[in-house]
Amino acid sequence: MSLWTALLLAAGIAFALKLAGHLVPTHLLDGPRVRRVTAALPVALLAALVATQAFTVTGGAFVLDARAAAVGVAVVALALRAPFIVVVVLGAATAALLRAMGWG
Amino acid sequence: MTASAGSDAADPAVQADPTARRAVVRQALSVGVATGAYGLSFGALAVAAGLDTWQAMALSLLMFTGGSQFAFVGIIANGLHAAPAAIAASSMLGIRNGLYALELTHLLGARGPRRVAAAHLTIDESTAVAVAQDDARTSRLGFWVTGLTVFVLWNLTTLVGTVVGTHIGDPRTYGLDAAACAAFTALLWPRLRDRDAVAIAVLGAVVAIVLSPTMPPGIPVVVAAAASLLAWRTPRRETP
């Protein structure tokens, strides 16, 4: 298999996966219970995504490092109703500062 | 700022269209810039893995889902014999986009070519901005502006990254990985108003962390999606 073949195959699968979700017939997704579940799907997925991005290292082991501290600071900022961009900048600054000090 | 994180969000009159639109565009642009910065890193990594500029660009243009792209080049760096593993890894990380689409297809109501475009732009960032909004129109705007902003910046920075290589340094030095975590947390925040949503988010997060050491990347997050089945029950406030 050439690199181009592998690349185009992988890209094709990635697009097919995205498209498949958009092509599920809407009548299958119309019931009130199913609507609640699909509405909750991004919540579960994004929470899981943040959790793996913030609290695991390559290989999947749990770890508390500068990223966890950044999420903690972000949550405090959100609870204090900070604007979106402030939350994002505080998160980055927290991690950058801790790493500059040699932690995480 | 998120519609609900702002101090003025409690007043529905303040959430009239122009304010909500400006807020969602600001979110979309911030997410686009943060993600775009990672494109530099992807471009540099792709070249280091043995891809040429065209191949790196083809991934960013055609695959257009960051996690899968990083996984693909990370594994293909071991040589062409690793191609099946690279395809498998990028595909497993791409499953969640299909699950996002189940909700987005309702939200967007796109048909024909617009639906194909919506599918291509279905990624973590566009989904997160879309579901963070309070009404369907702002959600749709958030999806399209975020998707297009990320698409343009991600591809431009991939190109730059393939040229400048690793000179720009590790994005983690600037806390950009943490910026992404903070941004997703902020976009999730307005959805966590009711106890059911909090339960779903916490369960999803815990399942993903517990499964991560024993499963290939991408799969724990997909399994964690099952937490959304908690919403199958009738919500508490609606029970007689």
From TrEMBL, chain A:
InterPro entries: Brnchd-chn_aa_trnsp_AzlD (IPR008407). The chain crosses the membrane at residues 40-64, 71-98. Keywords: Membrane, Transmembrane, Transmembrane helix. This is Branched-chain amino acid transporter AzlD. It comes from Terrabacter tumescens. The lineage of its organism: Bacteria, Bacillati, Actinomycetota, Actinomycetes, Micrococcales.
TrEMBL record, chain B:
This is Branched-chain amino acid ABC transporter permease. Keywords: Cell membrane, Membrane, Transmembrane, Transmembrane helix, Transport. Belongs to the AzlC family. It is found in: Cell membrane. The chain crosses the membrane at residues 28-51, 71-95, 141-168, 174-190, 197-213. It is a multi-pass membrane protein. It comes from the Bacteria. Pfam families: AzlC (PF03591). It comes from Terrabacter tumescens.
